[in-house]
Amino acid sequence: MKKLGIIGGLGPMATAYFMRRIIELTDAATDQENIEMIIYNCPSIPDRTGYILGTSDESPLPKITELAHNLEHANVDYIAMPCITAHYFHDQLADSVFIPVSNGIKEAAQYLYEKGITKVGIMATDGTASMHLFDSVFKDYDITCVYPDEAGQKQVMSIIYDDVKAGKPVDMEKFFQVKSQLLEAGADIIILGCTELSIVKRDYEVGPKVLDIVDVLAADCVKKCAKPRPECDNLITR
Q1: Catalytic choice (83, 145, 221, 232)
Q2: pLDDT digits (tens, 9 = 90+) for 212-224
Q3: Which of 84, 89, 129, 224 has the fewest beta carbons closer than 10 A?
């Protein structure tokens, strides 16, 4: 059994849900067969979207790297960061430690490629969308990404920041408007490309053809550290 290190707090509810999904996707009959985890729940890490878009000059990378070094000193075998916008810093983070760091975007691309998916709709933060974090990886798997129009992207950001991060009920009408727009644009499935949107799937019915990036990250961690349940290979909603 391997030990998992988690850089969390980006945001806190998504981190808690990530831990829950790891447990649910682990084929464990006893407490002892579950993955040992060390979790740094650090919500004080500067906002990732603000820094990427240039509205903040406070980089989250130094704190993220500090936590990774702490996990390395704690002898974890694998590191995960349940924040997709923070994957903007993935390569720098991975280069700063000797421990493998999960790449949720690459794992999602591999999963979709094996399923024969060639076009996906992305619901994510402005930072993730503007830097084309998914496109930069998915192109190597011949997967095309489509995004909401300007109004739709504002709705996605409102769900993430005004609803989930603020601890308020989610306006699901906005969610389904964006989902319909992406499907009409030819997307085979919709990727919830922000861990706050995973909370939407946790608490509300999102319908078929949805892949939650938290599920992808959790399944990857389970496969690397323990024995996965069959559900790890069936992550798209039906």
Answers
A1: 83
A2: 999 999 999 999 9
A3: 224
